[in-house]
UniProtKB/TrEMBL annotation:
The gene is LOC106820558. This is Mitochondrial metal transporter 2-like. The keyword Transport applies. It is found in: Membrane. Gene3D superfamilies: Cation efflux protein transmembrane domain. Belongs to the cation diffusion facilitator (CDF) transporter (TC 2.A.4) family. SLC30A subfamily. It is a multi-pass membrane protein.
Length: 132
């Protein structure tokens, strides 16, 4: 909003939704790593599958919202603003942060052998590329 950049606003909303999904992924990974018990004789691994589906639905919802907003701005040119040069600094900071999240998440994923965390790490990397 400060830099008048619709792309940064969309990226910020996407990043906020990613933050929420990261907490969900970490919670699911922690639950999935529990050993089998009386109520779950085969373990808790399926929680990762459920979390992956929820994560996919959340990302699809965010994509639809961003697309609708972009369509509104395209069809109403008076809503288009000229971004300020400060936007570049925010973009660069975002790219660095997202790439850092990729490396950290992948490190943890390999450490605990979690496919869900590996997927989330690649999601961070794809976000860095989309920000670029």
């Amino acid at each position: 909003v400060l830099t008048h950049s619709q792309a940064l606003i969309a990226d910020g909303i996407h990043t906020l939704s990613d933050l929420a999904s990261d907490f969900m992924v970490l919670f699911a990974a922690k639950l999935a790593s529990k050993d089998a018990d009386e109520d779950h004789p085969y373990g808790h691994d399926r929680i990762e599958t459920v979390a992956t589906v929820i994560l996919g639905l959340a990302l699809a919802s965010v994509a639809v919202g961003i697309g609708m907003n972009a369509f509104d701005r395209i069809t109403h040119p008076e809503k288009l603003l000229q971004p300020t040069p400060l936007a570049i600094i925010f973009v660069l900071l975002g790219i660095i942060a997202k790439e850092g999240l990729y490396h950290y998440t992948m490190h943890v994923a390999k450490k605990i052998n979690s496919n869900l965390l590996k997927s989330n790490a690649w999601h961070h990397r794809s976000d860095a590329f989309s920000s670029l």
